[in-house]
Amino acid sequence: MNGPEPPRPGRPRPPPVPPGLPGGAPAPLGYPRGPWPTDEPPTRRFPRPDPDRCDGCAACARACPNGALRTAPSASGTVVSLDYGLCLFCHLCVDACPSGAMAAGPMGELAVRHRDDLRLVRGGPRPDPERLRHEVGERVGRLFAGSLSIRAVDAGSCNGCEVEIAALQWPRYDLERLGIYFVASPRHADALLVSGPVTRNMRAALERTYRAVPGPSFVIAVGACGISGGPFVGSAEIEGGVDRVLPVEVYIPGCPPSPLGLLYGLWLALGRAEPRLRQGELPAPVGSVPGTADRRTPARRPP
Amino acid sequence: MSPIPREGEEAVEGPRVPREEPAAPLDRATEREMLGSLRAGTVRWEPTEELWRLSVEPAQWVWSSRTATEGLGHRLSTLFADRTGDGPGGLRVHALFLGQGSSAGVHLSVGLDPLRPRLASLVDPIPYVAPFEREAAESFGVEFEGARDRRPLRRHGARDPEPRPAAGDPPAGSPAVPADRFAAVEGEGVHEIAVGPVHAGVIEPGHFRFQVVGERILRLEIRLGYTHKGTERLLSGRPADLGTIWAESISGDMSLAGAMAYAQAVERARGSVVAPADDRARGLLLELERTAFLLGDLAGIALDIGYAVGAARANGLREEAYRTLARLTGSRLGRSILAVGGLRRPLLPVPSDRVAATLVGLGQRTRSWSEELLDKSSVLDRLEGTGTLPRWVAELVPCVGPVARASGLRRDLRADRPYGPYRGIEVRVPRAREGDVKARFQVKVAEIEEACRLAGQFLEARDRAGTGGNPSAGPSVAVAAPSPTDGLGWVESPRGEFLVHVRLDPAGTVGRVHVRDPSFLNWPALEWAVRGNIVPDFPLINKSFNLSYSGYDR
Ligand code: SF4
Ligand code: SF4
User: Fold this and answer.
1) A183 lines ligand 1 (CB under 6 A)
2) Which of A237, A251, B410, B489 could be B261's S-S partner, Cβ–Cβ 3.0 to 4.6 Å?
3) Looking at the structure, do residues B38 and B103 belong to the same domain, yes or no?
4) Domains: count for chain B
5) Helix, strand or coil for residue B511?
């Protein structure tokens, strides 16, 4: 050793970021315990046909890229059927409608417990609700409301849904404040959060992951893909939705669903919120404030 | 530790690496002469695509590809098959070669007999052609004579065994698909670790097979195809204007890049021009997407070295970038805003100064965050020398995007083949020499800064153009009305060179679309970079590459 090393010049440090400069992390969130945040950017909401303004031109159905929206003539005007489980929220129908009958819906709380609650039929007979019985069903809230461990499985998604699922762990959404955790192994999980249209190459892996989850457990289908195949509906390479393979407890529509929509879906799964959509219809009048969901409903606490 | 070198700075290329200037591009006449020597059926110069399109005979296939790679110094960028009819020549194989820097590209195509499509494999002049040929063999039944790897790319052992032949399954009577197996390493103490397709994090599915001794990785083989959705086939026959919707779902984390590449391909096929205001808006959105995407990479690197506070801060910045996209487009990922010919609808009215300040803030915060991170010896210990991808491997693979640039290659389509918003502006291409995780980290930091600068520049140009600068949602003008034909779209996506090739049917619908995601080229580089590293470093190395599974599988 030849004595102590001479002090090395430090690296030039960048100037400190001035306080108050925008572009920092967004504020933390109170939702879903509190109301829908007011500082949320205006994201595209679900399309909503208004039968009073519709003149039956079917321009919306022609514009819809994947057949989520269909029209059929009937004696009493035009029947518009819309499947929010297929809808990509692309708003091509809204842009195409010449009479302004397609409008953006008022809220982002779209998750439902039954597939049929995503199907809207305006002006025609309603589909019979096929209320499936699930393994845990209404007991989910009681079983897991205090703490829920989730294993996310990508069953062939485009990675769009993964971006938003991963965002739940980020500072703003901070899922763990709700007692909900992502775990690394299905053996540690209470629920599977499945995105993607279930490709033929992922079907076996998905089924095996499901079998590895200790019961009682349940499945949440995320995104248009997870519900119905989404944009890929019609491809021979997919099964077309998680419920073709596994029983699904909650469906969270969107392409991809926003992190807030995912939070609502998880809250719904835990029985802490009531579903707002019923057979595609909103109980509240159009224009009601987003996020006035049934937050007043007393939360079902574990016994 | 040197600051991140920028393009052109001497610090970029140290004394140990000889400075390699890209060969000066040949002039068009010389190129034409060289290509003319191929005696191709037709040679067509496509000015909007800066591309020579040649139709050659099967017997000339290998030779003309050699001319493109060895003679002109190009690299194979994509190879795919297309079926246009049942008669002779009804099945065509296309190969696209792009050159160094700004030289013109070469597009070769050859017609084959659809009943018995056979073609010489390009594996000898171009070793990395294998996945392309495997894909064409699998989906179109093309038999590549002399190919050494004939394993199926997507119809492998994991496939749902239900007897449901999909359209495009190889016709009955085609050579049996060889067994799908992994190479094994034998010897004392060698064992195998199989990981996936379901991984521990919130990430896409793929299968990794490691051969290891103790903790050290001898060899890694990656099997993908789990997210194959048949997107390309699904698009055939759809109205060309709708295609952006599916292009956004090729790699959902680069929705805008995918839509942009597709839109450009159709625009070039139709010969339409995009209004400058729309172009600037596209540029702004693309650079915002790059910022958000790369911040996610940085956060992932921080998380995988166990630096949770750093990861949270980078993710907070990323969230802000996505929220800015949402304020501008109504969609956090920028979905359904780009359209063929421009934008689908005008950007939402957001005060420009607020967006500009956010961009400045994102860039500055990323820089100071990264400086703080790289000041910690425990961070450097994990990043330095981990997952090194030498330049010569990056060149051989051949890598694109930040992965290539972190190994010293200067490849950036925004600078090399400027398109749309990038025409006539200067794009700085940051590079590093070492090719390790730290180099990729630093390159990505510098790219975020550059993306924020460019986005700010597009925003400024929009404001300078006055109130009329808000982009129109109207259709673009068709300058020429050529018979509907082929178009190539290229975008420097956050992961690198993203190519979309579109053939339009006479009716204006999509005939065939082929997507070459940057990850299709880059995945083999990951297999190289992990060798000699320890298994626990794999997630970190993987994150520093952050390749797309869905883009590879489509
Ligand atoms: S918003 Fe939904 S219903 Fe409307 S065109 Fe898009 S996918 Fe179809
Ligand atoms: S629902 Fe949309 S975002 Fe989600 S995986 Fe499917 S295509 Fe991607």
Assistant:
1) no
2) B489
3) yes
4) 3
5) strand
